[in-house]
Amino acid sequence: MNNKTVMVPFVDLTLQHQPIQTQLQQAIQGVTERGDFVLGQALKEFEAAFAAASGVEYGVGVASGTDAIALGLQACHIGSGDEVILPVNTFVATLIGVIRAGAKPIFVDCDPQTALIDLEAAARAVTPQTKAILPVHLYGQMVSPRQLLDFADTFKVLIFEDAAQAHLAEREGYRAGSVGTAAAFSFYPSKNLGAFGDGGMLLTRNPDVAQKMLRLRNYGAAQKYIHVEEGTNSRLDTIQAAVLHEKLPYLPQWNRDRLNAAQQYDIELAPLASSGIIPIQNHSGEGHVYHLYVIRVDDSCAVQRQQLQEQLAQVGIQTGVHYPIPCHLQPAFTHLGYQVGDFPNAEMLAKQILSLPMYPGLSHSQVQQVVSAIASTLSAEQQKVLCI
């Protein structure tokens, strides 16, 4: 950023951590005193607690959200020769997880209003080799569970949820992670429930999937030194699990704080819709947990996205873009054979979307400050046009 003082940070984790600093330190100290740093007591406790909070029976902690996808798909017996349908509008980890599982990724476009997977496009992408659909609950909003279950029933495919941004999100009576056969979560520090480093988890109701996942994360071992399949080393550290377990009871309130901030953004930004500032739509009501609050800087807007972002930075407001390049146009994946124009909605969003500050503790005045800065930028640009 060009400015020296950040007035409204994009994320401020201290607001979560400072009030519970003593509890967090005690949780870490408990692990150090027990010395069970790998596959320890706190991990088992957190796995059970997070699974229960999400409405499923089993949780298996792993080293990252990417591993939760890659190993989770393998645990669901998806691999070579299988096609997995996924949205092109997602973080690249979703794609990498499919590829690492040995499956073939089949991209589909997104709904331009919600940025979520277009299930009609997904239906057209089904082939005899389609084994699973991998919906991404993007920005904290779930893909419709009822539509997903209808899709799975119609095409006889497995649902594997990417819920990395949707901890305890709800829609249509389901919680994220409870819709499909399995689901992957990330505990990257900035997530709604974040660790003090990397971490992830697979959730499932299926005991066989859970048992296979337990083996895959630990060198494929059914018991010590008995390796029944090719696994890897991907275990959620016990210290990270202890931190996450301590934070979990606060997550519902943190999610409500995010929702409250998002609702205020909606109100404050409404007058700017006619000027081309359009929030991504919420079709989940209070079940949206707003990992990110994302607007579109529409083509009708007097300023372009980059110009708006730069002007906000000048007055100390940090923003982000999630994501600037769709997966099919990333240089590493040209071998998949997709081209510019294949997914017009995702390509349009990549040019228009802007993520505004969002975190528990974001104040009413800070939201007003962000929206006021956007309005001032638009007004200044419109005045320039009038003077020409």
Automatic annotation (TrEMBL):
CDD domains: AHBA_syn. InterPro entries: DegT/StrS_aminotransferase, PyrdxlP-dep_Trfase, PyrdxlP-dep_Trfase_major, PyrdxlP-dep_Trfase_small. Keywords: Pyridoxal phosphate. It comes from the Bacteria. It holds the Pfam family DegT_DnrJ_EryC1. The keyword Ribosomal protein does not apply. The keyword Transferase does not apply. Belongs to the DegT/DnrJ/EryC1 family. This is Erythromycin biosynthesis sensory transduction protein eryC1. It comes from Brasilonema bromeliae SPC951.
